[in-house]
Amino acid sequence: MDFIPPSNREVEEGVLADCLLSQEAAEFYTRDLCPEDFYFTFHRKIFEAITILCREGSPVELPTLFTQMRTMKQEFGVAQLGAIIDAPPLASREWAISELRKKRNARSAIELANALQKRALDPSADIAETIEFVRQAAEEIKPYGSTPRSACTIASTLPQAFDRYDEVARNPGQLRGVETGYSQLNFLTGGLRKKDLTLLAARPSMGKTALACNIVRRAARAGFKVAFFSYEQPAQQLVDRMISDLAMVDLQRMSVGPLSPDDLSKLNDAAEEIHELPIIFDEDSSLKTVELEQRMNQYAAKLGGLDLVVVDHLQIFPANDIKANTNTQLGQISKDLKNIAKRANVAMMALSQLNRGLESRSDPRPRMSDLRESGNLEQNADTVIFIFRPKYYKMQEDYKNQAEVYLGKNRQGPIGGCNMIFRDEIVRFDLVDLRQIGH
To answer: 216, 253, 282, 431: which sits with the fewest CB atoms below 10 Å from its CB?
Structure first.
């Protein structure tokens, strides 16, 4: 007899039947289960279709299910569907979720054991890599409990709250978030906060990537661990920008010359410092949110933790639902990034383009309403930082390098900003009063 991995056909059929009988049940199950929790392929595809319907706000009924299955190019037979419709009622929904999760964890454990055996028998396998593989794979096997980890009472949060209050009393002015490298931004934000989504938004050519690189280098220099996901520029270009910023050597001359002996000395010193910083660049432009989170877990293991994640930029980030319009895609991506930040306990900074509509105004400075044309970015972000350079619009000729960097939204503090100078030859932002930290 062929080996059948741990599974429970009756429970899988019961869950699907409950979904078809009750919209409330469908929404309940899709919050805690995913298609991979179902062993049988047909059941998995049906639950995937139900999940899509719930996410789109569509009713879960036989006609809509048939339509979604056809959209997914999935065939199904009357006998298979009949077994689901005729499934006996479940003991309870919570028990059904627990049962399916237990079976999936058992299957995952078997897969892990088989993979471990294969690696152990491979004489060329590196033992350190094998141990890391086991650690990462084991983290994916998570039991389903009666109380979600996201649930907390007021009583459970108070000790942590008063620990923070005591810390503030003992060390007034100390940053609670990730160092930005700029004193005025630190004052306004308290640092880039863990579990928050910060948008760095501007029109093209304003210096979004430049400012992000400046912040990343300064944060890493202060000891914070950073992962930078670049969907636009290769990692080498970002490293060149950081070296130019630190060495204060013209980026153009770094590419085509001429470079003096003094320049080379400065570049060598900068490269040595950059080499030691806890930063990982990832230039894979195909990563969706699920793969991005997986990479984050890998980089956290490599760096011994992760404090700041940068995504450059949202408008070219691959969407999960390619059929949705751009605004819907951006809203879902930003929501996913916010949730990832909360799960991973990191500060998430996402760069975002602003549409050209603002250029038709007499005052083209970005404002919050400019984000309302971009999905739910405004609602999903905890902090929004805008960049505006008057030179781009031929304003204020006496201040050709002036840049305004200001907060349009700050969920945990005041809004405001600071005047900076953008030195485009070394892609570097400096505070006008030169009080930036770690310059």
So the answer is: 253
Tokens linked to 148? 């979600």
Torsion over CA: 130, 132, 136, 139 (sign)? positive
Rounded to whole angstroms, how far apart are CA atoms 274 and 39?
Answer: 48
Structure tokens at 385: 């930082």
Residue of 273, 249, 275, 252 whose CA lies nearest to 262: 249
373: burial class by Cβ within 10 Å (0-12, 13-18, 19+)?
middle
- CATH (one of 1.10.490.10, 1.10.10.10, 1.10.860.10, 1.10.150.120) for 9-139: 1.10.860.10
Q: What DSSP character marks residue 90?
A: P
Closest to 407 in 3D by CA, of 397, 398, 399, 418: 418
Supply the pTM of this predicted model: 0.63
Give the H or E element holding residue 410: strand 402-410
Model confidence pLDDT, tens digit, residues 297-349:
899 999 999 999 999 988 889 887 777 787 888 888 899 899 899 988 999 99
The angle that helices 9-21 and 78-85 make with each other, rounded to 10 degrees, is 80
Chain-centre distance for alpha carbon 183: 26
Residue entry with tokens 């602003």:
354
Q: Give, as one character, the DSSP assignment of residue 88.
A: P
Contact 260, 254 (CB under 8 A): no
Q: Where are the domains of the chain?
A: 9-139, 183-431
Residues in the chain: 439
**Which secondary structure element, helix H or strand E, spans residue 262, and what is its range?**
helix 261-275
What confidence tier does 436 reach under pLDDT thresholds 50, 70, 90?
very low
Q: Rounded to the nearest 5 degrees, what angle is found at the Cα of 387, between the Cα atoms of 381 and 391?
A: 160
Going 358 to 364 to 369 to 370, the CA torsion angle's sign is positive
CA–CA gap between residue 247 and residue 325 (Å, rounded): 43
Tens digits of residue pLDDT in 214-236? 999 999 999 999 999 999 999 99
**DSSP symbol at 244:** H
**Domain formed by 183-431, architecture:** 3-Layer(aba) Sandwich (3.40)
Report angle CA 336, 408, 435 to the nearest 5 degrees: 105
* Contact assessment for residue 381 and residue 199, using Cβ atoms and an 8 Å cutoff: yes
| HSE (side-chain half, CA atoms, 13 Å) at 409 | 21
Nearest Cα neighbor of 183 from 234, 218, 233 is 218
